[in-house]
Amino acid sequence: MDLALRLLLELAPALGRAPAWVQAALAAFVPALVCFTFVALGPIVYVYAERKIAGFMQDRLGPMRVGPYGLLQTIADSVKLLFKEAIFPRGVDRRLFLLAPLVVNVGAFLPFVVVPWGGRLQPVDLNVGVFYVIAVSSLATVGLIMAGWASNNKYSLFGAMRSAAQIVSYEIPAVMILLVPVMIVGSLSLQDIVSAQAGGLPNWFLFRFFPLMPVAFVVFFTAGLAECNRTPFDIPEAESELVAGFHTEYSGFFFAMFFMAEYTEMFVISAVTSVLFLGGYFAPLPELQTLGPVPLGWLWLLAKAWLLVFVMMWLRWTLPRLRVDQLMHVAWKVLLPVALALVVVLGGLILWPATAWGFPWDRFVGWPITLVLVFFLLKVMVRALRWSRRRAHELATIGLER
Amino acid sequence: MRQWLRDVWEGLFTVLVGMRITWRHLFTSSVTLQYPEVKWQLPPRSRMRLFMKYEDCIGCGQCVRACPVQCIYLKTEKRPATEPAIWATTGQPIKLDVTLFDIDMSLCCYCNLCAYPCPTECLYMTTEYEFATTDLGEHLYHFAKKDARFLTEDPKKKAEPPAPDDGGRAPSTPPASPAGASG
Fold first, then answer.
1. What is the pLDDT of residues A318-339, one digit of tens each?
2. What count of CB pairs under 8 Å joins A to B?
């Protein structure tokens, strides 16, 4: 907050003579505006990325027509949605129907208030940051149920009930795992949690307590995936069963708002996961933390969050949708016991002074795992590229050159 | 407990296998053709739009009989004896004047059955496939033309001296748009 104020005072020195409350209001308003703009424009990028990734993963090209490489496709689509009529079917509860997309969006946007982009680059450093994130991100569920209920449509209500059941179920393991970094650091503030992971990749919580924290990461990421209704867990909007779930009756810009909320929520979950497990705004090598005088922390957090967003999209185009009973099975019989066991075991380990911050071998685990993973992915990638080139050559030899 | 562990492991492992597959496909080249810019080169025997070389037609009507959907319309008149004798390029004398040879490509089922019996091989299918129109009537192609220039000598007879007046031969390659496309 004071960083924003200092920046503002440097840009407009006359502001220094303004009353304190004006300064405070501006210092609160400007970062919020920056954050909101960034987050609101994000879905344009994510929708394009999603469609491109989907295309490539299915050996297609994705959008190619609007602008170079289809770059303007999302903008064209959102303009189209803006100009479309917002239809209110007979029998909807108008007030709730209108309010629902707003509530969903508020629930998606509010966690950004506490995401730390740098040592002081954080809209508000709440001392109950983690708690706040949980509380606020649950608001989206209320919005979904409002949408489903107000639509006066049995499929919408079905979708809403499913999403409520799903999010409530998956929040429990997620919160359990959230406790682990909180227990290690002893603070609920996201800033403190990031600071505890300073000093390069082996210090990230992902690689602490070696076999245990990766499991915690997987559990948390899975639960997060379920919380933003993404594909392996997208039964609330399962198009093959429920038309479109809770947003069946929505059209035009209200429909777009649900998508904005979904993609924003994806980014929020990814950002929070990066903060909790992947070292937040810290670079994997401490030398890369700044480029000369320019701090790169925000870029690192962005890169990590986008990496996780990419993994979410990757999973979406890999896995089929779960059945409702399978969904509940995963939440209550797999994730919850694992999360409980992790909390108990890690809690005990943290209490023991020798392992309060991790096992002795943690230093030597982070880099090898990362490198092996990157190597494996590169290997598959190179093989795929080589295969493509060979196939192109074969096609050319039989006269089907493109 | 052991079954539970096995199930969890299997679930995780199969997800990773699937992710490997999609990761591989992320980098394989796409199979999409950007159609109007890039076109698939059709094999030479593709059965697309019909073309008929009017100068070679002897008006035998076998194509009309062969057509299963009756999309070829043929009208012939006996060539008057006063007119000069004409031949098809394959050597058959043309005894009938073809006054009308229309093919309705909107009815055509692309079976190629009309091309097989043609004795002079003047009716065949081309690789041309981009002939969509906004008016269905434009799919009725008129192939009979008034200004056709036929062979006035038997091509079999004059094998040894090269005919000086062979300029009367019509171009043998199908033009980009066939004879009566604007009809």
1. 888 888 888 888 888 888 999 9
2. 71
Rounded Cα–Cα distance for residues A59 and A61 (Å): 7
Q: Which residues of A touch B31 (CB under 8 A)?
A: 59-60
Per-residue CA distances from A34 to A4, A6, A355 (Å)? 11, 16, 41
Q: Which of B17, B19, B38, B127 to mutate to probe the A interface, most A CBs <10 Å?
A: B19
- Reference B76, options B48, B55, B103, B57; nearest CA is B57
Q: What is the ipTM of this complex?
A: 0.78
Dist. CA A401–CA A2, nearest whole Å: 61
In this prediction the pTM is 0.79
| Integer Cα distance of A265 and A257 in angstroms | 12
Rounded Cα gap, residues A256 and A218, in angstroms: 30
Partner-chain contact A315 B19, CB within 8 Å: yes
- CA distances from residue A60 to A52, B14, B18, B23, B81 in whole angstroms, order as listed: 9, 24, 18, 14, 65
Tell if the CB–CB gap between B33 and A59 is shorter than 8 Å. no
Using a CB-CB cut-off of 8 Å, the residues of chain A touching B4 are 333
Domain boundaries, chain B: 50-168
How many CB atoms sit inside 10 A of residue B150's CB? Answer: 17
- The pLDDT score that the predictor gives to residue B183 is 38
B151: DSSP letter: B
Cβ distance A319 to B18 less than 8 Å, yes or no, reads yes
Write down the architecture of domain B50-168 according to CATH. 2-Layer Sandwich (3.30)
